[in-house]
Recover the amino acids of this structure.
């Protein structure tokens, strides 16, 4: 049942309508029957749906109460339909094109196979009999209906798109011909708006986190960062690079006449499924100005702690730590290791109507309903420390400090954690013990740290093996033992001469990389009496780390190797992430 539809977005891509997959009352009954969501959480989801004027289905997804896949499986079972995950299927172009792209977008339907039973299609709305009848008449084939989630279908629709380099080649050729013979200089009539919109739309479709547009000798080079790795996408004529820079500055309300200073800004970009927040950084370089656009997607950050990669043991430790009404929960690691995502996953769980939550961030990356979020602004002297002081006067229960990076912020945060507040924060440190050392160096009192820290989580991100093209291989046990040590290797893989590990062979779905998405590897250090005593006596980080391991903390290498043994990632990824 279609309840809302738009025609196209800014880039000319048709915008998919919203479907009521299952009525709210029916879904509520289904969730209760299956006992999948606690009563209080379900009530919060209903209230959120009412406030935001969205379906209960969408509300449950946004609040991370159930994953997109688990919701799909539950609804498919309710309708007695097979559930299919399109991201795990290689769909040939001839099968895909049986259903025109415009129909696929408007009706949220994808054809993914054809055999003796007929045409197999994945649909988001199992009640859409009209589309099924249309397909039967169009193809003269029986139609086998499977249920897929709307997000999965939306991702699969990107398969219709041509290679971005070919798209740009067509745009450039067409407009070069138009510009020749006109009074303007060659290249001045390029449709810059269309080019930039196309770049952002393709980046979003390919799940890129960042877009780099850089002036180089060969032209204006566009690169996408996907799963932490930069990929060259296209090279545009260098003549149009200044125009792209100007377009980005206009969208971001930056000075278009300033070319010698770095500028930061942000703007919103409409995609078929959401309004995307785009963070902008423009920096002068020898050949012009570099543009980096960070795509902050609401859908891509719908993570639960489980989906981030916490083991069952570490998950229980973390839950026990943030369930306390006061104290400090810290996430540590280098830039880009997922620290903020982890803290927001915790914050989503804690975000309830009767609790006052405030944050101070630089910048505010994830907007959360019901949370008071403050943006750091050095120009007005609104620093982390100043913002934190202001938050304390707002009667908060829970505070998120984007990063502890100086003595004043560390002092206020630890004092707040001691006086009845739950403080969540991040900081740069290699492991939990080093985080304690850094806080001590910032002037935090040892007795305060020993009394206030509930848990310190150190983390890194590794690329996840693409499951559809995953293959196992045998390697010598001594290879792993040389890297991880005999004891740890035996603990994870046993004592056999060879060990089974996995890798992705590479396929069309993962662009030949063998990987899709990323997963975290963690060290979770819970405070105990022995660690407190070591902090009070100002022991060095190495001593504290050994005590934590002896007390049951799993090392990051061990957590990574366990994920290797489970076939989630590769040995190479773990070694790369854990080397100091």
């Amino acid at each position: 049942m279609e309840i809302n539809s738009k025609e196209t977005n800014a880039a000319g891509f048709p915008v998919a309508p919203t479907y009521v997959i299952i009525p709210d009352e029916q879904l509520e009954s289904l969730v209760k029957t299956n006992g999948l969501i606690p009563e209080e959480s379900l009530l919060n989801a209903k209230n959120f749906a009412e406030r935001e004027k969205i379906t209960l289905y969408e509300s449950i997804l946004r609040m991370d109460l159930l994953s997109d896949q688990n919701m799909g499986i539950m609804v498919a079972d309710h309708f007695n339909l097979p559930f299919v995950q399109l991201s795990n299927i290689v769909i040939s172009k001839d099968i895909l094109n049986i259903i025109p792209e415009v129909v696929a977008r408007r009706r949220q339907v994808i054809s993914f196979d054809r055999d003796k039973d007929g045409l197999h299609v994945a649909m988001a709305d199992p009640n859409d009999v009209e589309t099924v009848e249309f397909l039967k008449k169009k193809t003269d084939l029986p139609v086998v209906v499977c249920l897929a989630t709307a997000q999965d279908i939306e991702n699969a629709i990107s398969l219709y798109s041509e290679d971005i380099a070919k798209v740009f080649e067509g745009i450039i050729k067409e407009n070069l011909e138009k510009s020749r013979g006109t009074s303007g200089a060659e290249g001045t009539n390029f449709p810059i708006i269309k080019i930039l919109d196309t770049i952002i739309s393709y980046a979003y479709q390919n799940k890129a986190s960042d877009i780099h547009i850089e002036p180089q000798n060969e032209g204006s080079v566009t690169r996408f960062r996907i799963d932490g790795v930069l990929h060259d996408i296209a090279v545009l004529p260098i003549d149009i690079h200044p125009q792209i820079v100007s377009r980005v500055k206009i969208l971001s309300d930056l000075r278009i006449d300033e070319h010698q200073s770095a500028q930061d800004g942000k703007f919103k970009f409409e995609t078929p499924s959401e309004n995307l927040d785009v963070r902008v950084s423009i920096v002068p370089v020898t050949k012009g100005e570099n543009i980096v656009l960070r795509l902050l997607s609401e859908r891509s950050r719908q993570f639960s702690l489980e989906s981030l990669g916490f083991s069952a043991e570490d998950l229980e430790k973390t839950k026990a730590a943030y369930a306390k009404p006061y104290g400090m929960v810290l996430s540590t690691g280098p830039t880009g290791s997922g620290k903020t995502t982890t803290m927001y996953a915790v914050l989503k769980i804690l975000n309830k109507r009767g609790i006052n939550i405030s944050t101070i961030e630089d910048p505010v990356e994830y907007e959360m309903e019901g949370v008071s979020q403050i943006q750091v602004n050095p120009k007005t002297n609104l620093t982390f420390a100043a913002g934190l002081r202001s938050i304390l006067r707002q009667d908060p229960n829970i505070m998120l400090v984007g990063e502890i990076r100086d003595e004043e912020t560390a002092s206020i945060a630890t004092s707040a954690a001691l006086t009845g507040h739950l403080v969540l924060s991040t900081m740069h440190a290699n492991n939990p013990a080093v985080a304690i050392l850094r806080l001590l160096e910032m002037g935090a009192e040892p007795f305060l740290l020993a009394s206030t820290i509930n848990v310190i989580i150190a983390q890194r991100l590794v690329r996840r093996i693409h499951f559809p093209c995953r293959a196992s291989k045998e390697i010598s046990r001594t290879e792993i033992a040389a890297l991880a040590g005999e004891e740890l290797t035996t603990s994870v893989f046993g004592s056999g001469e060879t060990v089974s590990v996995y890798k992705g062979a590479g396929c069309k779905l993962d662009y030949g990389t063998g990987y899709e998405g990323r997963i975290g590897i963690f060290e979770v250090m819970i405070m105990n009496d022995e660690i407190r005593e070591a902090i009070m006596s100002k022991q060095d980080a190495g001593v504290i780390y050994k005590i934590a391991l002896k007390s049951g903390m799993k090392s990051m290498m061990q957590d990574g190797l366990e994920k290797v043994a489970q076939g989630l990632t590769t040995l190479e990824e773990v070694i790369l992430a854990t080397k100091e």
Q: What stands out?
A: Confidence is low (pLDDT under 50) at residues 1-19, 179-188. Residues 305-462+518-554 form a domain with the Rossmann fold fold (CATH 3.40.50.300). The chain has three domains: 2-159, 162-296, 305-462+518-554.
